[in-house]
TrEMBL record:
Domain called Methyltransferase: residue spans: 49-144
Alphabetized SUPFAM superfamilies for the sequence: S-adenosyl-L-methionine-dependent methyltransferases
Pfam family, one: Methyltransf_25
GO biological process, alphabetically ordered: methylation
Protein name: Methyltransferase
Record's keyword terms, sorted: Methyltransferase, Transferase
Gene Ontology terms, MF aspect: methyltransferase activity
Amino acid sequence: MDSTLYKTKVTDAFNEAAATYDRLGVEFFTPMGARLVELAAPQPGQRLLDVGCGLGATLLPAAARIGPQGTALGIDIAQAMIEEAAREAGRQGIGNVELRVMDGEHPDLPARSFDLVLGSYSVIFLPDARAALARYAGLLRDGGRIAFTSPVFTRDTFPFLPPMFTELIPMSLLDHLPAAWHPEQLHRQLHSWLEVPADLTAALDKAGFTDVRITDENVPMTAVSGEAWVDWSHTQGMRLLWQHLPGPEAAALRARLITALDALREDGGPVRIEVPVRYVTATVAR
């Protein structure tokens, strides 16, 4: 898919989803963002950038840690996300946050102006993420750090979804995602840097980073019901897939997912899924 067309689709999808993004009885981005901030360890007084900030699941806890002497800039390609994040910062009383609409792949920001660059499940949406990593290195002050999350990509699972979904999702939908996510591309080692830790380390080295640390952990995802999870899936990255399914196929997939998810519930309790997440941190090599 053409890069410009892809970005337009991503922007439209997240603008439409902003009002309900991560707010439909499902918890995932919040605990993942909190853990990323914990590993990134922002310090009081620092200046940080959050790429693809969404509603602030990473940005806001990071801003709280740097305190009033620090500044946190959140950027997102979707105007509606920026507006919702601003409202959320106001609700939480966090005043050291600035929010701007900006393309995370080509951030128009001064060189060497940040101590920390964050990106939670956002870097993976960039058509040429490896080139963007080099740009982030240029934005960091000497000794600055990057910290981001991605799915734990494997050749037999569907991107950014728990393994249990592999047999339920039509793999043809991958045609509407970045080429780097395709299992067949990973298999050919064309984009294996997303899958293989050694290749990911090499990509970061080439981008200007050192001291790369990769930590794979399960993040607990909870949903009040299977239906709540499916509704929530329309508000985040999977929305890009739903919009390409014809009505009957979408209805059939919805039914399959709800049935499979509700089968995980115990005594009417919530759906609980352990989702593998890759946390990556590195230091700029100067």
